[in-house]
Amino acid sequence: MRRVREDLLEGPVGPTLVRLTGPMVLAILSTSFSALVDAWFVGRLGSRELSVLGFSYPVILVLTNLAMGLGVGTGSVVARSLGAGAMEKVRPLVAHSLELGLALSLGVGGLGLLTLSPLFRQLGATEEVLPLLRSYMAVWYLGLPVLFLALVANSVVRSTGDTRLSASALIVTAVLGALIDPLLIFGWGPFPRLEVVGAAWAALIARAAGLAVSLWVLIRRDRLLGWKGSEGRLRSWSAVLGVAVPATITRLAFPVSMAIITGMVASYGPTAVAALGLCNRIETLLMVVVVALATALLPFVGQNWGAGRIGRVRQGIELSGLASLLWGGTIFLVMALAAPAVASLFSRDPQVVEVTSAYLRIVSLSYGFQGISTVVASAFNAVNRPLASSAITLARMFALYIPLAWLGSSLWGLTGVFVGASTATVLTGVGAWIWGRRVFAGMIEDS
How many helical (H) and strand (E) elements, i.e. helices and strands, does the chain have? Predict the structure, then answer.
């Protein structure tokens, strides 16, 4: 760990960020691939079983965002402590963070089990699907401690600057889940045929393996885990939650705002909704590099900020912003020429292809600016300014995206929705960049 920490604090900024980002790209891609494999196998069982994944998706998204928000908070605090060289604080901090994850997961899981049927009835599940949903989500809720502990432990590993092992744990989870899926879904060999519930068990087993990898790193390799009873527990929890709560609220704001946009698009018919859903999935793949860069930036910024090397922090943010613009610009040029071809890879419906192509050509213009706002928000989390990070995302979604999409819809129809989305993202990126430069320039002057 010592060599990794020296690279973060002393190595060339550009190459260091590239080294941190590369493994996370592979990890995010493998996770996305695993989700597609899961849906493909369950889809072989029939539409009723596949609907279980559809009904459970928003709930699982909320659960995952809760765990990821806690991971962001833990990673931010640990990175700053490592940068400051306060190893005596790091070991109990890691232990207390895992305790917090366990406590929250047990509470959320218990609440989920108690409200399982009423919740999914509200989401529109029929009595025919409810028994499958209850069995599927029961495994998810009972295994929630593994999810929380895995994401928190992985975030700690990443905060040391070792994104390779952090990514390895995520890749192990993804690959193992894809391999176990058919064994438990279809009952191949000596395994029982559990059908859609087998998918939930496969995910739980795979997450447990990923957790084991992260814990091995923390306990055996880096020796970053040490309990000292309750001493300092409340202080650790307060520090972690100070970043985690705003980060979680921000993450939960995205599905809420997208639900509003989906309702707006629904007025143009089911084809438009289908195209929007397809666009969201394509966009997730196109933005993998930027998301990985923002994820990798947190330990870099956190450790350098903790060590008082604010100039390196600013340089890292500037290079990341430039890389985001270059990546976004490249995607825009590709989409301007090949959007119909890309859309045709995912749908044969000519109307869906037409709408998807229009979205990709218009909204891809803003991808570089979306990368800038993501990078600046991640940097704010790293230096313990979570409210500033949340403000960037909330302003984009609620102050700009929804109003401008509505205005665009009123003026130019469905195309106007896409213009509004692109305009909101560009304005947010510009605003975030100006704000970030002022904040970190002030830090340099104060240091």
Answer: 18, 0
| Token pair for 429 | 């990126």
Question: What distances in angstroms separate CA 239 from CA 97, 118, 145, 151, one per listed residue?
Answer: 10, 35, 21, 18
Section 162-187 average pLDDT: 92
As a whole number of angstroms, the distance between CA 257 and CA 279 comes to: 16
The domain in which residue 421 lies consists of 257-446
Write out the DSSP string of 17-46.
Answer: HHHHHHHHHHHHHHHHHHHHHHHHHHHTT-
Task: Give per-residue pLDDT as tens, 19-45.
Answer: 999 999 999 888 888 877 887 888 888
How many domains does the chain contain in total?
Answer: 2
Q: CA-to-CA distance for 141 and 113, rounded, in angstroms? A: 7
Contact 14, 300 (CB under 8 A): no
pTM: 0.86
Among 289, 315, 309, 322, residue whose Cα is nearest residue 5: 309
Region for residue 193 given its phi and psi (left: phi exceeds 0; alpha: psi -120 to 50; beta: otherwise) = beta
Q: Which residues pair with 228 in a beta bridge?
A: 230
Do residues 155 and 293 both lie within one domain?
no
Q: Pick from 188, 210, 228: which residue ends a domain?
A: 228
> Which of 59-68, 190-199, 255-264 is predicted with the least confidence, judged by mean pLDDT?
255-264
| Token duo for residue 207 | 């997450």
In Å, how far from its chain's centre is CA 367? 17
Which tokens sit at 58?
A: 């928003």
Check if the beta carbon of residue 380 is closer than 8 Å to that of residue 388: yes
275 contacts 352 by C-beta, under 8 angstroms = yes
Map residue 228 onto helix, strand or coil: strand
Q: Could you tell me if 192 and 276 lie in one domain?
A: no
Angle ∠(210,213,216) on CA atoms, nearest 5: 150
**Residue where one domain finishes, among candidates 191, 213, 228:** 228
Alpha-helical runs (H) found in 130-162: 130-142, 144-159
273-329 tens-digit pLDDT:
888 878 887 888 899 999 999 999 999 999 999 888 888 999 999 999 999 999 999
